[in-house]
Design a protein that fits this description.
With 481 residues, the protein is an alpha/beta fold. It has a domain of 102 residues. The chain contains 15 helices and seven strands. The protein has a five-stranded mixed β-sheet, with helices on both faces. Strands 1-2 form a two-stranded antiparallel sheet. A hairpin with a 5-residue loop joins strand 1 and strand 2. The longest helix has 36 residues. The radius of gyration is 34 Å and the shape is elongated. It starts with 10 loop residues before the first helix and ends in a 10-residue tail after the last helix.
């Protein structure tokens, strides 16, 4: 029987194989950890919607209803008007355009025709409110005459009549109102005017009316921007817009009574410098901690609605963590305190209350820093290590504590930047309806007209009469604080 071949393994070859397997195992463990982290990041990204991120509600999928975002507590009352609510009814018009007296009809019991009776108009009235849209054409004719001396004189058309046929201020104002405020597309606006008034307009004509309005409103809108620069508190935000097939940015700077829009090819500091307003702003600027705003000379206040969404995302991703929930409760409690203080007519919160909020704020974030330490590069490596969203949030909240809590120390500052976000909502809807702006000039004209209309809307000034005055060469100037 043959003997088995002698083994050729040596101790040093076994050690080399063991070392190779250990290195391979370590590399595989590293890859598994990276893949697990990538899976967690992707799951967190899929789990984000409008309630735990900055994504707009319109991006929420229809099959997934996000949790309620409102912090209001249910009152328990039924929807609609409550008991003893005074209510309101449509009032009768004292000077109607038409009056119709309903005649008597039929026969009396005696056989006499009721139409032959002497009648008396009763005090009870009923009215029908309707809308009549019609075309109104005004024709101008010139005249000529001969003086006794033989000289011939001719009248001249008014300076405003530069063409054989043109559109009046009322029609131009309605067209701009439809396209720039109600955000109807140009083609549909032209169709509407054709159906209602029998006036045939091309979309290009409506575009020209918008640009004419922008040219007439350039001075009032510039004054609006300068007034915002002088304000104590202003809000800033930006959103992407498609212009001539490329991505540009619509910037807004606003207050509770003023709005200024500007379109720029850039989003950051270059755009803010090009627009030219924030270079002279020395008040408190409320924004969403976009780093470009921090380069301006203003004082800063961060939007805490963004922080609440980020904290909600952390709390949902890891329910074991308690500090995100504690910080959410603290911010909401501080906001309620500031709302109550303003309602009571206070100029500042009491000092002990402010100190208590800051102490709790620091304690909660110290716990957050403990659970989310900074990631360090491997020994000997100089490459930058990507930090977790939790660490970045904690670091930002600690570094910019004064900006985050500005609403507590200064009651003129609101809790969030919702004012600027609401001002961007309608221009964003314009893009969704119409797709994009065909040219930078069209986008700039829209920004100018929309600045004026948004400002008038905030000041409760009727828009259509103001646009009519604009096309007559006398645009009403809004109140500039």
């Amino acid at each position: 029987m043959p003997k088995p071949p002698p083994t050729t393994d040596r101790p040093d070859s076994k050690d080399a194989e063991l070392t190779r397997l250990r290195a391979q195992n370590a590399e595989q463990a590293k890859q598994i950890a990276e893949l697990l982290q990538r899976i967690r990041d992707l799951e967190a990204r899929l789990g984000k919607d409008s309630h735990n991120s900055s994504k707009p509600p319109s991006s929420d999928p229809p099959f997934k209803k996000p949790p309620p975002r409102s912090r209001r507590v249910r009152s328990g009352m039924k929807p609609g008007g409550q008991k003893d609510h005074p209510g309101a009814t449509r009032a009768l018009v004292e000077d109607p355009e038409h009056r119709i007296v309903v005649p008597l009809e039929g026969l009396c019991g005696c056989g006499r025709d009721c139409a032959e009776l002497a009648v008396e108009v009763l005090p009870e009235r009923r009215q029908v409110i309707d809308l009549v849209v019609r075309r109104e054409v005004t024709e101008y004719r010139t005249v000529t005459g001969v003086c006794s001396c033989g000289q011939v004189h001719c009248s001249a058309f008014p300076d405003a009549l530069g063409a054989p046929v043109q559109y009046g201020p009322g029609l131009s104002a309605l067209a701009v109102y439809l396209t720039h405020y109600q955000l109807l597309p140009y083609r549909r606006s032209a169709e509407l005017l054709g159906v209602l008034a029998g006036i045939t307009l091309s979309p290009a004509t409506l575009v020209g009316m918008g640009r004419e309005a922008a040219a007439r409103l350039a001075a009032p809108v510039a004054a609006i921007g300068q007034s915002i620069v002088r304000s104590v508190v202003a809000h800033a935000d930006e959103t992407g817009m498609r212009v001539a097939g490329a991505l540009q940015w619509l910037h807004v700077l606003c207050t509770s009574v003023l709005t200024f829009y500007a379109v720029h090819a850039k989003r950051g500091a270059e755009a803010l410098t090009g627009i030219g307003l924030l270079d002279g702003f020395r008040g408190i600027l409320v924004h969403d901690h976009w780093r470009a705003y921090l380069s301006t000379p203003a004082q800063h206040a961060f939007c805490n609605a963004h922080h609440l969404r980020e904290l909600i995302a952390l709390a949902e991703a890891d329910p074991v963590l308690s500090w995100p929930k504690q910080l959410i409760a603290l911010l909401c409690e501080a906001n309620d305190a500031t709302v109550a203080a303003r309602a009571a007519g206070l100029e500042t919160l009491p000092g002990p209350v402010v100190e208590g909020f800051f102490t709790r704020y620091d304690t909660i974030l110290a716990e957050g820093a403990f659970f989310h330490p900074q990631r360090l590069p491997p020994p000997g490596s100089r490459r930058r290590v990507k930090q977790t969203p939790a660490y970045n949030l904690v670091a930002r909240l600690r570094t910019h504590r004064d900006e985050v809590m500005r609403f507590v120390t200064d009651l003129r500052v609101p809790f969030d930047n919702n004012l600027a976000e609401r001002d961007l909502r309608m221009p964003k809807l314009k893009q969704k309806v119409s797709g994009c702006f065909r040219s930078p000039e069209g986008a700039a004209a829209f920004a100018t007209v929309r600045s004026y209309l948004s400002t008038l809307r905030k000041q409760s000034i009727d828009l259509y009469p103001a646009l009519v005055m604009t096309f007559r060469g006398q645009p009403p100037m809004p109140h500039l604080p």
